[in-house]
Amino acid sequence: MNQIRQADFGTPAARGEATVTVTIDGMAIDVPAGTSVMRAASLLDRPIPKLCATDSLQAFGSCRLCLVEIDGVKGTPASCTTPVTDGMVVRTETDRLRKLRRGVMELYISDHPLDCLTCSDNGDCELQDMAGAVGLREVRYGMEGANHFDAESREPVDASNPYFQFDPSKCIVCSRCVHACDEVQGTFALTVEGRGFGSKISAGTFADDFFASECVSCGACVAACPTATLQETAVVEKGVPSRVVETTCAYCGVGCSFQAELRGNDVVRMTPSKSGGANEGHSCVKGRFAFGYATHPDRVLKPMIRERTTDPWREVTWDEAIAHTARRLRELQDTHGRDAIGAVTSSRCTNEEVYVIQKMVRAAFGNNNVDTCARVCHSPTGYGLKTTFGTSAGTQDFKSVEKADVILVIGANPTDGHPVFASRMKRRLREGAKLIVVDPRRIDLVRTPHIEAAHHIPLTPGTNVAVMNAFAHVVVTEGLVDEAFVAERCEDESFARWRDFAALPENAPETLAEAIGVDAGTLRAAARLFARAGNAAIYYGLGVTEHSQGSTMVMAMANLAMATGNIGREGVGVNPLRGQNNVQGSCDMGSFPHELPGYRHVSDTNVRAAFDADWGVTVPDEPGLRIPNMLAESVSGRFRGLLIQGEDLAQSDPNTQHVTNALSQLDFLVVQDLFLNETAAYAHVFLPGTSFLEKDGTFTNAERRLNRVRPVMTEKTGLSEWETIARISDAMGYPMSYASAADIMDEVARLTPTFAGVSHARLDHEGSMQWPVTDAAPTGTPVMHVEGFVRGRGQFMVTRYVPTDERANRRFPLLLTTGRILSQYNVGAQTRRTENVRWHDEDVLEVHPHDAEVRGIRTGQRVSLTSRKGGTTLTAVVTDRVPQGVVYTTFHHPDSGANVVTTEYSDWATNCPEYKVTAVEITPANEPARWQEEWQTTRATRYDIRVPAE
Amino acid sequence: MAEADLVRMANQIADFFAAYPDDEAAAMVADHIMKFWAPPMRQDLAAMLAAGRGDDLSPLARRAAERVVAAASGAA
To answer: What is the mean predicted confidence (pLDDT) over A738-762?
Structure first.
């Protein structure tokens, strides 16, 4: 048996609380009612041979290999589909069973090539293992009859997918892959085509191959396949892995746990961990397959410096780069004042790396000019949830969705942005939960196999708050408030004020319908469905936060959840779907300019005193500059030096011309990243960063789960990020003496009450934990606000709808909104350097057929996209997926320049940019935009690396 | 920072808190600015008022800005 294969108990765990006692091969065991005989036997270390069963799937009793004998039961039932009963007596190994199993295996093997020695799955093949387990020694039928593997009859290997291949000649048609696609992923891309001996697995009748099919390359079928039929291409090329390191994905905020499986120092494949709390054995095309960027030749592995941004880069030693960086930063402070410099942390970095940066800023720089890339995504979540509930975090664990009766998805596209959670959500929807989608676009979730939203509210971009206020009006005026919950858990005064506000005629669906662009009846029906659900849960993304009223909207959702009593238990809650893997963590670690770790304001004397005492400095008591403020202050000349770790402001931040102008004005810019990104064009020092496969630390996902990130390979750069920052801090006169990343987390725990019980040692021994981890909750907190809100009583906020200043007009009559796609990730720095580009090699502009027709635009045509801020050109795709008057694009490719057109408008409370609403016009184009030509020049002139003399 | 940016941001904050009773709202806007705006931004706001500019500030934003200035003077 392969030693790296994860334990497989054959069927999923039963959830019943009652237990029954069963005796298997003379040994008694107590198991939850509903447990299969197969699972109970496996728990007793009496594994029963199996082929079609695996514990990620419901048993379907197809292969007939797992037969057992049960006292008082006729025949030999399949152990996978037979639940245990109290007092049941089972035998798993008898002469009769052995004979039956061999007979079954003979039939399978008679149509399977006997090429084990040259098979890519040799040593990792369940069919091979089972043949051994049942003692198969001969195939009486011979191998010469009709089959699917000899030269005349075998079908060609389908190698269309870049990451795995499908070899039909090795398929035993066990159907695990079909069930995995249906149950685990929920895409229903695979089927069994034909009948009897002619049965074969197909990626869809109308598809030529896997790549052209509906398959989303999540890898669930590959993980489920018991043979080499569905096999990772890397295993075919490199061989079966020989060792495993458990770590955490570096992509979205789901934070999936993976086994990095290696041969020597080469990562052969990433296999999702069944024990991963966030993903429970599932994965997506990014996490499972798109890790090749970590070893891409574009990576810069040595520090580089240059005097002017027009100079070529010069490779230097770490010592020189660190000394130079420290000296230049200090010189700027000496010349322009303490507040003239700052730093930006990244949600792609670990908690420990982020913590050290904010400490360097506060202790070595002596100011609070530290901000995080969460500024441009979920900062309104921080403000809104802290104001209403008392802490800046989602309320639930992902598993909670399994108890939801109504799911309200607002401004999120989970099947593309958070696909592993989407699969979990879709499973619950197939079980019967109702779905409400609030999104201008008809996202996949609105109608997907076996799922159809009860209500889709295709609102006009920028009217989220109006929708929530309409919901609130219905709840308040139709007697749908959970009065008992509100009376027990919420503030009387703020509730009364909110109730009066919500009841105003200005908030009636009939009043707001025109602005929203959706009829009042739909709004009322959706609000009633939510309020009467039983368990109603809200899941939201950047379509909520990236608006001028982003924070208002977060508070409006919190109001709705409180008013309807949907907080503080499983199946409910207000749940931000975080964009990057460590958005939650980077915010937790104090990288906002107004907050110390644990979301405590810098003006809090007691909090500051604790940090002053521990760090031996005086932490400033005034808030520092946010990223947009830093850029504005750079333009005005007061802000002169910036260190950016793992964030590409020049591509990801709005109003590109303003951003690049501000970066150009800096006297000194340090960029630490894997690649020479867009921002690096304006940098004076480049510090090479490490990939997630080289990091040691923790990520905190959207459910507040701290997962360990373990080094799979040594740093290719020779220095970790936290060591780099610590050494810069040392060189600036504030020594940091950590021996390891674990030391840093110990300091976090010492100074941050919600992390008091967290340590690397505990995470290594006990597994992931969800903060708060305290004496009161020593193993963590899956669901928050169970007994009461963190702030005491929940606070309702009045959330008046204020239309954004960014409005369509005669010159710019359309509204642009942006999002992301399944195969790509944010600015694409990682995924563009993998085979994922085969699914998405350019950003396109979706245009409604009416808007396209009146402008003479067809699919495939290049169009000019212009706003009052700038213009770019993109390829048009005409589709009614977007409503009339709205166009949509992604921002994964830098040459697309999606942010060339976005504006300076931002959320009122947090300055989170309003990416989701830009007034634009589109026209047919026959040449690139001026910005795109300038970008080409920048690419050609700002990235030269001088080769050192021999 | 550019005064147009300061005015826009202050007005946006005021737009949110305008739903609250007037005195309360002015205090809330001022409190927000003091908690989240870095000192140089607040100093620019004060300088704008001192110079008699800021006509585009909404009445609520202006009252809040005056509170911010007064608080800074008090602190000084």
So the answer is: 98
Round to whole Å and give the CA distance between A735 and A737: 6
Where residue A927 falls (left for φ over 0; alpha for ψ -120 to 50; beta otherwise) is: beta
- ipTM associated with this complex: 0.97
The domain that holds A638 is classified in CATH as 3.40.50.740
Per the CB < 8 Å rule, is A594 touching B13?
no
Amino acid type, A369: N
A545 assigned to some structural domain:
no
Indicate which CATH number applies to the domain containing A875: 2.40.40.20
Domain end: A739, A770, A801, which one?
A770
- Split into its structural domains, chain A has a count of 2
Q: Give the span between the Cα atoms of A137 and A139, in whole angstroms.
A: 7
Residues A868 and A748 in one domain: no
Contacts with A, B 42-71, CB within 8 Å? none
Domain boundaries along the sequence of chain B: 3-75
Question: Shortest CB distance from A908 goes to which of B16, B35, B40?
Answer: B16
SS3 of residue A471 by DSSP: helix
Contact A909 B20 (CB under 8 A): no
- 0.80 cut: is pTM over it? yes
Phi-psi region of A916 (alpha: psi -120 to 50; beta: other; left: phi over 0): alpha
Task: Answer yes or no: do A722 and A841 share one domain.
Answer: no
Residue of B nearest to A803 (CA): B15
Residues of B in contact with A904 (CB under 8 A): 5
Over residues A925-934, the pLDDT tens digits come to 989 999 999 9
The answer to whether the Cβ–Cβ distance between B39 and A622 falls below 8 Å is: yes
What's the domain range around A925? 814-941
pLDDT in tens, A489-519: 999 999 999 999 999 999 999 999 999 999 9
Please judge whether A798 and B19 are an interchain contact, meaning their C-beta atoms are less than 8 angstroms apart: yes
A123-136: per-residue pLDDT in tens? 999 999 999 999 99
* Contact state of B38 with A635 under an 8 Å Cβ cutoff: no
For chains A and B, count residue pairs whose Cβ atoms are closer than 8 Å: 62
| Max Cα–Cα distance, chain B, nearest Å | 32
